[in-house]
Amino acid sequence: MKNPMPFLLIAALLSSCVWLENPVSLGRSRSDAMGERTIRPKAGDPGEPDDTSTHLYISAVEYPKDYDWVRDTAHTLVDARILLFKDGECTASIPAGDSRHVSTDPDTHWILGGHLYTTFSDGIRTYILRDGAELLRFEGAEDIRGMLIRENMLWTLGQKIRGEGFTLRCDGTAAAENQQGLLIGSLYEDKGDLCYAYMLTVKAGNYVLRKYFLCAGGTEKEVSVPSDAQAVFDIRRVGGITYATYRQSSVPVGPVLSSDGGSQSLYYNLTTAQSPDWCEIIPWKDDILVKGWYNCTKDMRRYVLWSKTGMKLLFIPQIVIHDFLADERGNIAAVGYDTRTDETVIYLPPNATPRVSLGKRYRFISHRVAALAGDHFYAGLTGDGEDLLCLDSKRTPVTVNGPITGLAYQ
Q1: Total domains, the chain
Q2: Are 125 and 139 contacting, i.e. CB atoms less than 8 angstroms apart?
Q3: Considering the domain boundaries, does residue 379 fall inside one?
Q4: What is the pLDDT of residues 103-133, one digit of tens each?
């Protein structure tokens, strides 16, 4: 991989761009999409770039200079654009709005193969645009949960917005569909197979049963979980092995990680009152890690990163972790909020022990604004009137009135 590009030059280019040349009406807004996020299910793996070189891509929403986009009181009247930068140069400036089928919601922005894909549903059809030009449209209102490029074809995994059911599509054409399933996680590749998981609710007399399935390479198999599993958090295949995390009433002091070869309680000095609220499986080297959080009290959470043997790899008291990151090279990083000093902090690779304090609080818009690339950590954080671009411990402000919604080094 190439060395990181001149960082200050990129930030200077971002800050000096002229935005909003031809503003149009803004589309729908989701206020929770602009707030701070904690750990969320991962999106699909990034697509392949158009060339063999490596570039830093950033997407952002730009509002008029004096508009308070955090409160977003006039979201149907104000103008906005979705922007894509490649190594600091603006390569796409896309007007947002319902009539243009472009949303400001960060969950609808995907950086794949050097292009910005946006998804939109009008309640009847679903639209996918690439760099502002319509690429696909199909019948049915879908919330796109996963998207990736495979052999120059665009694969999407969409949950029905109303009711149950989902569809896996290749270039907009249904490749597989289920009329009742609810997706768990997203779309990804493992050992050359497209993979995803879902839950199915089945009525059996007076009882309602939940069944879980993993689809890999076009083959579907049921994933067994104990009958007293109270909540299944994640199901993922890594290296050909199927893993699941869940809360189990007979194991009250921690989440359980199961695999094809058995199960392991991720115990961590907890009382029975400290039940897990979320656990996600992430690939790491040739193995996995589990990240998650507990609700310890009404107003307090604890965030933990475990190995699959239950060993606590990272636990930082008084820090609200927005996301843990890990990669196949063995690096670990994290970004969070220090409740004692009221500032955002990042923990750098290789083992998330070097800490960098950012001096103030920034918004972590989604998991897509942080990435590990090689042995480096990148993050695009959103502030009030000024955003921040981070490369390891280097920090450069970016003057944008709006959130950074995505970052990719590909």
Answers
A1: 1
A2: yes
A3: yes
A4: 999 999 999 999 999 999 999 999 999 999 9
| Domain extent for 398 | 7-409
Q: Which residues contact 79 (CB under 8 A, 6 or more apart)?
A: 20, 23, 24, 25, 26, 63, 64, 95
For residue 232, being part of any structural domain is answered with yes
Q: What's the chain's average pLDDT?
A: 84
pLDDT at 297: 63
Which residues does the chain have with pLDDT short of 70? 1-52, 76, 252-254, 261, 267-275, 296-300
- Whichever domain contains 19, its CATH number is 2.130.10
Residue 2 lies in a domain: no
Residue 150 — φ and ψ, nearest 5°?
-140, 115
Q: Give domain status of residue 401, yes or no.
A: yes
